[in-house]
Amino acid sequence: MRLKAILADDEPNILRNLQVVIPWEELQIDIVGTAKNGVEALELSSLLNPDLVMSDIRMPQMDGITFVEKLRQINESCVVLIVTGYQDFEYARSLMRFGVSDYILKPINYEELENTIRKLVEQMRAKKQSKYEEEQKWGKMKNLAYEKILCDVLLNYTEITPSTLLPIDEIDLENLTYSFAMIDVDDYSQKSLQWTEEERKLWNFAVRNVMQDSLTDEKLKFKVLQMREGEWCLLIQSEASTVGHAPPCMEDLAVKLQNNVLRTVKLGISVGLYADAVGIRQLANVYKKLQRFMQLSLGKQQSVLHYKDSKEPSDANISLWYLVEEIVTGLKQPNRTKAEDALDRLKSLLEGLPDSSFARAYQMLHFLILHLLRELREMNSIDSNEEEEVWRKLDKSESIQHLLQVMVQLVAFGLEGTNKKKNSELLMTAAKEYIRTHYSTDFGIEDIASALGISSSYFSLLFKQHFGETFVEYVTKHRMELAKSMLLLTDKSITDIGKSVGYTERRYFTKVFQKFTGEIPSEFRDKRREGY
C-alpha cells in the first residue's frame, strides 16, 4: 500500500536533499507536495490528505508549532515528523502533546532520518492494515444485521418501527425501495431426494454463491436471502422515488442468473419477477404473492415469470394453496386442530369439484404435496424413511383419492414430528441456554438453528411465537442489559465490555448501545456512577 507525504522547510537546499537522499520509492511513498512555510503546508495538507508530514519548526508566515496545531483540526491521523535545531529541542518536545510522532535535530543526519522514517512507515502500515480489518469486520456486521432485518420483515416476524430496527450507519430503511425477484430450483423436491442433508446444504450454498458472484459483476446494491431450501429472494435496493417502477434490467438479470447457475451448478432455476418496486412495509405481502405465484405455475422449467396483481387467479387452485398454507401454519405453531381442520376442508373442496376440473386438480394436488413435503423438511419434522415412503406412494398414485391419502399421511408425519421429535418448548429452552452461554461470541440465527437441528426460517418462527420478539431484538436487548451492568459494576474498558457481550467492533457496540439507551456507553457510566 502506497503512502503520501508532504515536506515543509523554508530552506530550498534541505527540501531538495530530502527528496533525493531518502529512498521514497523503495518505501512506497509518494511526495505529493512541498512547502516553504506553514501556510503552504497547511493548504497542501487540507487538499491532499497526506499520511506523513515532515516539517521544520522555524518557518516564515506560520511556524511549525502553529502549523501542527491547525493540522490536527483537519487531520487527526496524519503522522508528523518535526525537524528542529538544538536551541529548539525542548520546544520541539512540547509538540508531542499535539501528536508529533518524532523529531530530528539539525544538522540532519540522513541515515538516522531514513531509519526514523522506516520505523514510522512500518507503524503507519500496521495501523492502516488494522483499520482496514476493523472496517471489514464493521462492514460484515452491518451486512449481517441488514440481512437479518430483511429476513424477519419478509417472513412477517417483526413490526417496522424505528425502535425495532438496529442502527446500520446511515441506512434509512423506510425510505428505500426494492425490485423483487424470487428464485426457485426447478423440481427441487424430486432432485434433492437423492442428496444427503450435507449434500443439500452444499448444493444450496453453491447456487447462492453463483448468484452472488453474478450480481456483484453488475455493481448493484442487492441481497440474496435464502428463505428455504432451493428458494431465494433477490432484493435490489433503489431510491424511494422509484416506487411503482421496477428497473428494466430485471429480465436480463434473471436470464443471466439462469445461465450462470445452469452452466456452473448444472441446476435449472425459474425466476419470478414482481412488476413494481416496493417499500419495506410491502415486502412480506409481496413475498407471499410471489411464492404462491411461483408454486402455482405448474410445469415451469428454466422460466422467467412476471407477476402482476391484476392477473391474480381466482380458481380452485388458489383455494387449494391457501388450505395447504393453513396446514403448514398449523404444523409450525404447532396446532393439531388447525392443521386437521384445514385438511378436512381441503378434502371437501376436492370432492365438490366438477369432473372437468379433476385433471387440473390432480396435477395441482400432486404439486402441493411436494410443497408440503418441502416445508416439513425445513421444520425437520420428517425423517428419510418417512420421506421415502411418501415418494413410493406418490409414484403409485393414480387418482385424487390416492393423493389425498398421501396428504393425510404427510400431515400425520408432520404432527408427530412437531409434537414428539422437536417439541417447540424444549427447542426454545435449548435456544435460551445457547444464547446465555454464547453472549460473548458473534453467533447468528444460522449457528443456533444448526445446533438445534432445524432450519433458520423455522427457528425464527418458533422464536417469535415463544418470546414475542425476533431473535435479533431479543439477543440485542439482553446484550445491552448485560453491558449496562458491566459499565456500572466493573472498571472494564468500553472496548472490552463490547467484546464481552459479542461486539468485536467498538463503534458498532456504541451505536447499538446508544440506540437502546439514548446515551453512548461512557456517558451512561459517568452519569450513573455519580450516584453510586
Overall pLDDT level: 81
What is the overall number of helices? 21
At the fold tier of CATH, the topology name of the domain at 172-312 is Alpha-Beta Plaits
What is the straight-line distance between the termini?
Answer: 50 Å
In total, how many beta strands?
A: 11
Proportion in helices: 55-70%
Give the CATH H-level superfamily of the domain at 172-312: Reverse transcriptase/Diguanylate cyclase domain
Overall description:
With 532 residues, the protein is α/β, with parallel strands linked by helices. Among the domains are: 3-108, Response regulator (Rossmann fold); 172-312, Alpha-Beta Plaits (2-Layer Sandwich), CATH 3.30.70. The protein has helices spanning 12-21, 38-48, 64-74, 89-93, 110-154, 188-192, 197-216, 250-265, 283-296, 316-332, 336-351, 358-379, 384-396, 400-421, 424-437, 445-452, 456-467, 471-489, 494-500, 506-517, 521-529; strands at residues 3-8, 29-35, 52-56, 79-84, 100-105, 176-185, 222-228, 231-239, 269-274, 278-279, 304-307. Strands 6, 7, 8, 9, 10 and 11 form a 6-stranded mixed sheet that branches. Strand 1, helix 1 and strand 2 form a beta-alpha-beta unit. Helix 10 (316-332) runs antiparallel to helix 11 (336-351) and helix 10 packs parallel to helix 12. The longest helix has 45 residues, at 110-154. The model has no long low-confidence stretch (mean pLDDT 81). GO terms for molecular function: DNA-binding transcription factor activity; sequence-specific DNA binding. Pfam families: HTH_18, Response_reg. Keywords: DNA-binding, Phosphoprotein, Transcription, Transcription regulation. The modification 4-aspartylphosphate is found at residue 56.
